[in-house]
Amino acid sequence: METVYIETSIPSVYFERRTEPTIVARREWTRSWWDRHRHEFKLVTAAPVLEELSRGDHPDKKEKIGLLDGLEVLAASEVVAEIVEAYLNRFVMPREPATDALHLALASLHKCDILLTWNCKHLANLNKTDHIRRVNTILGLHVPRIGTPLELLGEE
Questions:
Q1: Taking a C-beta distance cutoff of 8 angstroms, is the pair 49, 74 a contact?
Q2: pLDDT in tens, 103-116
Q3: CATH class of 3-153
């Protein structure tokens, strides 16, 4: 069974309320995968995801956090911080927000098969794949596949 790291954008999009067609499509794809296919995978998340979702006042805050109830929660550590710094120094991820590098570091260190995200600018971005692979190989880290719920829906 493949392990999927659930990044912050997944619960956020699951409960998205905006009505622009692209946003609605992402929400429906996320809900379809979560509601019908998540049981085909071992899902994990991380303390920084829960921290991100806990900050500020936003709609459906409790529901977003609740969606992750029961998942294994990976903790950040000094090793993770060193990996994040390596990503930033090698321009794998931007310094702001450094959370993108943090999610990648956690998924890589814990050998997650897939990092699931709607962050298509810095994470689920084909232009970054080779760079991530090269740097993770240099660091001796696992290289997770990075994608969106739509990609896991396959033919649906």
A1: no
A2: 999 999 999 999 99
A3: alpha beta
